[in-house]
Amino acid sequence: AEAGDVAARAGVRRLILAHIGAEYHAEIEALADEARARFAGEVEIARELVPYPL
Length: 54
Description:
The protein has helices at about 1-10, 30-40; strands at about 15, 40-45. It has about 55 residues and is α+β, with helices and mostly antiparallel strands. It has one domain. It has a two-stranded parallel sheet. The radius of gyration is 11 Å and the shape is globular. About 10% of the residues are buried.
């Protein structure tokens, strides 16, 4: 949720959630949903070895 708040204040168009602790892996979609509730832009969960253009 905090990441969504920061992204909204920063005025970015896209938020990529990365470096998520292992203890949250079972809840990853819930974390993304929390970010989406606070951020109107695109929210994506980073995938290993996938390049993300800036």
